[in-house]
Amino acid sequence: MLLVNGPPGTGKTSLTFAVAERYDRMLRIEVDTLRQWVCAGYRHPWAGDAQWDEQRLLATRNAAAVTRETIAARYAVVIDDVAFADDLVAYRDALEGIDALVQVVTLLPDVETTLTRDAGRNEPQRVREVHARFAEEAEAGALPGAVLDTSGDASAYATAERLMDVLATGAAMLLEPRA
After folding, report:
1. Which of 82, 87, 78, 89 has the alpha carbon at shortest distance from 108?
2. Distance between CA atoms of residues 143 and 178, nearest Å
């Protein structure tokens, strides 16, 4: 099970598709889609209030629940999310005891690369703010797993090659399989 993490515009979605191509049986979970399942009372991520925190945790738990069922069916799972350090703690707690290795990689290219990749969404100020928080958490060592600067990667496939190398070293581990 792999969680691909990072600010908007870092290439998470493209990378998860490139990773999924490498496996015969894989489910890709885009957590943003789970968040959009809230039909009444939806709060935008930038709301930053208690209701948004509740919805963020609900999406994390839903992603973990889908992951548990998928792993039980013997599929691999890759999750695409924007998860800060406290969200990764929630993932670790929700996935505790799962019968699979759980790894997390945070993509963190420089802010200009991120803005270029995210240009279609036209929210540069929000992207800068989210990127700054990720950079602070990475600098403080608060993000478990591995952090990859993908600024120079020519494509999602180049990042996927680097990702596979990192996964092989064990540097991205969040949880080991239950004994």
Report:
1. 82
2. 22
CB atoms within 10 A of CB 115: 18
Whether residue 119 has pLDDT greater than 90: no
The Cα–Cα gap between 143 and 27 comes to 24
d(CA 66, CA 37): 14
d(C-alpha 16, C-alpha 71), whole Å = 17
Answer whether 0.70 is exceeded by the pTM: yes
| H or E stretch covering 28 | strand 26-30
Residues 27, 75 contacting (CB under 8 angstroms):
yes
pLDDT at 26: 95
> Comparing C-alpha atoms, which of 51, 52, 63 is closest to residue 90?
63
What is each CA distance from 28 to 21, 90, 140, 154, in whole angstroms? 11, 19, 30, 23
**pLDDT, average across residues 86-106:** 95
Is residue 130 within 8 Å of 82, Cβ to Cβ? yes
Rounded Cα–Cα distance for residues 170 and 165 (Å):
9
Distance (Å, whole) CA 66 – CA 94: 11
